[in-house]
Amino acid sequence: MAKRTTRAAQPVHSFDPKVEPLFGGESAAGWHPVFAKDHDEDSREQSYVRKVRPQSENQRVLMKAIDSHNLTVALGPAGTGKTYLAVTAAVEALEEGQIDRIVLSRPAVEAGESLGYLPGDMHEKLAPYLRPLYDALNERIGGKRVRQYLTDGTIEIAPIAFMRGRTLNNAFVVIDEAQNCTYGQIKMLLTRLGWHSTMVLTGDPDQSDLLDGLSGLSDIARRLEAVSGVAVVRLTDRDIVRHPLVAEMLTVL
Q1: For helices 183-190 and 217-224, what crossing angle results, to 10°?
Q2: pTM
Q3: Which candidate, 104, 71, 97, places its Cα nearest to that of 225?
């Protein structure tokens, strides 16, 4: 399946010095685009990041892979920018008219701590699990537009359990934390890819919250490396853009 010719004709990424660094600007920590208060909007809307640039060679490879492939699998430890770069590419594709909608999906698997029953509708139930995606979207386009896009369906939250049987055409699909999906779930998700669509699968095989042997991410990535048209990008500790201690701790933990 070939990419749209309009997309292929575009330069991969600009390294103009005016471009903001990855994760630059005001942090979105502690803020949720769905439940934000009005008095926070003005300052937030003025500070969202319009452009990003890679902070490592592997991040550059990932950005180029997403730009030139319909399916990209991004593997790497926490803090390497996998989710942020995937959401960035999705927003750029939407703003350039290459797609009609963004579909976000993430397994609702708790990291060793049971949250119990969560009240509210589907969006409210999934909000705690999708918080990293919301934060990235807020930094890219601002909270007001995020809420607008969620309301009109331009940005769709799709629980993995509800993806079966769908064909996602003209969409940019981000499957985050895929290490918490089984082999069967990932296979089902991959086959949702429709015409003129892009899918990015992100995860860290070393941080699965499933029982040993249940995660299918490593096996899927190994098999897809032999498929032409699919990019498998592996990031390492050297690509971590969080606090320097994160990289150091991961080498001993």
Answers
A1: 50
A2: 0.75
A3: 71
Rounded distance between C-alpha atoms, residue 220 and residue 84, angstroms: 22
pLDDT-based confidence at residue 127 (cuts at 50, 70, 90): confident
Burial of residue 161 (CB within 10 Å: 0-12, 13-18, 19+) is exposed
How many Å apart are CA 253 and CA 88, to the nearest integer? 30
Do 142 and 93 contact (CB within 8 A), yes or no?
no
Domains and CATH numbers, the chain: 18-25+33-252 (3.40.50.300)
Q: Which long-range contacts (CB under 8 A, 24 or more apart) does 120-125 make?
A: 122/157, 122/159, 123/34, 123/150, 123/157, 124/34
What residues form DSSP beta bridges with 200? 72, 174
Closest CA to 196 of 214, 174, 180, 172: 172
Ramachandran region of residue 159, left (φ > 0), alpha (ψ -120 to 50) or beta?
beta
Residue 51: per-residue pLDDT: 72
Directed axis angle between helix 122-141 and helix 143-152, to 10°?
Answer: 130
Question: What is the model's pLDDT at position 43?
Answer: 45
**Residue given tokens 């902070």 in the structure block:** 55
Question: Is a pLDDT exceeding 80 seen at residue 21?
Answer: no
Which among 228, 222, 173 has a CA at the least distance from the CA of 199? Answer: 173
How far is the C-alpha of 15 from the C-alpha of 53, rounded, in Å?
Answer: 7
* Residue scoring higher pLDDT (13 or 127): 127
E-strand ranges in 78-141 read 101-105
Which stretch of DSSP H or E encloses residue 99? none
